[in-house]
Amino acid sequence: MKKVGVLISGRGSNLQALIDAQARLGAYEIALVVSNVADAGGLARAEAAGIATRMIEHRAFGKDRERFERAIDAILRAAGIEIVALAGFMRVLTPYFVNAWRDKILNIHPSLLPAFPGRDTHARALEAGVKLHGCTVHLVREAVDDGPILGQAAIAVTPEDTPESLAARLLPVEHALYPLCLAAFAGGNVQPAAFPLALNFWVPAKPR
Ligand code: 4DW
Ligand code: GAR
What we know:
The protein is built from 6 helices and 7 strands.
């Protein structure tokens, strides 16, 4: 069982998915949730699940990103964290933190990377006229939305789709993909698939 620390900045629906799946998947345990935003909805979700939380407000560190990250690093290490999962965490991590936790930080991004890195992914996917959209779980590198891809899941785009409808249809897919990728990664023994691999799976019946 690997001890996971989840970094959040917002509503925490992906955190909720990781919490809800951990007993079923049995490969990771969320031991700590760290938020850089005081009123992040994810903090209440963690508390409701009996998970320890910490608030490290980046503003308190001014422009010194590395000092902010040293504070997070110290908290993660004190809690015995082995894997860091970003779940809607909005601060770019510097080379210091990425290298301190190299190959131990995962992120979920709402596009089929390397297509549509950055913000407004759904609007840009529609603008580009793609017929498949999706989400990606990847290892975090210095460059944002970059790094080895652990898993992807795709959805079909319809002519009626709006950025909002795409986001709403993709979110439960994110919630299915992230726990599976984290569990596979935590279980070790994973390497890039040697052949194209498409997964289809049931998504949670309960809306978040
Ligand atoms: C991400 C990328 C850029 C910003 C926010 C989030 C996606 C995931 C991510 C978070 N931190 C990361 C990643 C990543 O993929 N790779 C690394 N670190 N190394 C972004 O531009 N954030 C800005 C602030 C936004 C805000 O506070 O509202 C920022 O200046 O950090
Ligand atoms: C999710 O859609 C996630 O894929 C996206 O932010 C949302 C967080 O929602 N992440 C990024 O855009 C990273 N570049 P949540 O707080 O409800 O999990």
